[in-house]
Amino acid sequence: MQLRVLSREDVRQAVSMAEAIQIVEDAFIQLSSGKAVVPIRTPIDIPRHHGTILFMPAYLSDSDAAGVKVVSVFPDNIRAGRPTISALVVINDATTGEPQAVLDGSYLTALRTGAASGVATRWLSRKESSIVAIFGAGTQGRTQLEAVCEVRNVYRVWVYDIARETAELFAEEMKQRGGRIPADVRVAAFPTEAVREADVICTATTSRKPVFSHKDLKTGVHINGIGSFKPEMQEIDEITARSALIVVDSREAAWAEAGDLMIPRDKGLLNENDIYAEIGEIANRQKPGRVNDEQTTFFKAVGNAIQDIAVASFLLKKANREGLGTIVEI
Ligand SMILES: NC(=O)c1ccc[n+]([C@@H]2O[C@H](COP(=O)([O-])OP(=O)(O)OC[C@H]3O[C@@H](n4cnc5c(N)ncnc54)[C@H](O)[C@@H]3O)[C@@H](O)[C@H]2O)c1
């Protein structure tokens, strides 16, 4: 059997953020229209090393794409200079079931997670949104910013990280990035400084407590909360969650995994009816997105295998056409 092996660099070069946003939007529409088979992912917690390995299978019927991602989240890695997240994706041929390709899933994860926030920002933020705040200057923070800049004309960016030097590195890198990312990237000394003029906020931290206060938010802000993916993790405070129009990637996964919603629910502050929509229902025009400039909108995403499999499958088709990667006989 032959397998195509695609490296991180192959993924980076072959799929742009603009393409990823389109692919992920289409995947969310399939998910919310019942055209995806996606069991809740299986986590294996390894408390001794403070890590989790997640097994994430999916099949999208319109795309006829199937596969699985195995992704590790080990926050202590950062102390050893290693990334928090590492991952591999296997794509299967949906007609025969045979494995077709193995891809680096680390950059792919950052790309599709950014893309999800790009989709949500396009549907939920005010059109004239132009100032962005990023919480968590890590791997995800970078693609969060890239995605928001893809869908809105951004002229200023604030970044806040509990490790100031990490935020400074982020700012230096992003100032030089060019394209749609502006050169005006500022490090905030406090969360308040980052959020008070922000039209769009992305939280991409490993925090277990809220990263900013609701009282500092600007009217009409849109928030993408992607860091918390376990019941005990929380980035968004309860008052903000309670007062916002809440949109999720998947209802089922949100109530099983999203501390940002489960913590206020367990205190009696939110219930299942407080999720307004899945983003796929909005992108599919079943429900309107933002309806006025005063609403606070909150997109809560825990991440879904359909995003990985849709982007990986697009990439594999391109790789087959253009001969990207390496063929290995196994
Ligand atoms: N929802 C999804 O689809 C999805 C996808 C990928 C990753 N994630 C999650 O996103 C989070 C970030 O991932 P990453 O790969 O960027 O990790 P990372 O370790 O590269 O970056 C996280 C950053 O957050 C900072 N941080 C921690 N607490 C903070 C706080 N209270 N305020 C400000 N900054 C703080 C850390 O100092 C670090 O720089 C992880 O929890 C990860 O599991 C979610």
Overview of the molecule:
The protein has 330 residues and is α/β, with parallel strands linked by helices. It has helices spanning 8-14, 17-32, 106-124, 139-151, 164-177, 191-195, 238-243, 251-257, 259-266, 279-283, 305-322; strands spanning 2-6, 36-37, 42-46, 51-60, 65-73, 85-92, 99-104, 131-135, 156-160, 185-187, 200-203, 222-225, 245-248, 275-278, 297-300, 326-329. It has two domains: 2-108 and 306-329, ornithine cyclodeaminase, domain 1; 126-304, Rossmann fold, CATH 3.40.50. The chain is built from eleven helices and 16 strands. Strands 1, 2, 3, 4, 5, 6, 7 and 16 form an eight-stranded mixed beta sheet that branches. Strands 10-9-8-11-12-15-13-14 form an eight-stranded parallel beta sheet. Helix 2 (17-32) packs across helix 11 (305-322) and helix 3 (106-124) crosses helix 11 (305-322). It is globular. The N and C termini lie close together (6 Å). The model has no long low-confidence stretch (mean pLDDT 97). The structure holds nicotinamide-adenine-dinucleotide. Residues 73, 78, 84-85, 109, 113, 135-141, 160-163, 166, 204-207, 211, 226-227, 229, 301-303 line the site of nicotinamide-adenine-dinucleotide (NAD).
Features:
single chain, 330 residues, alpha/beta, ornithine cyclodeaminase, domain 1, Rossmann fold, globular, binds nicotinamide-adenine-dinucleotide
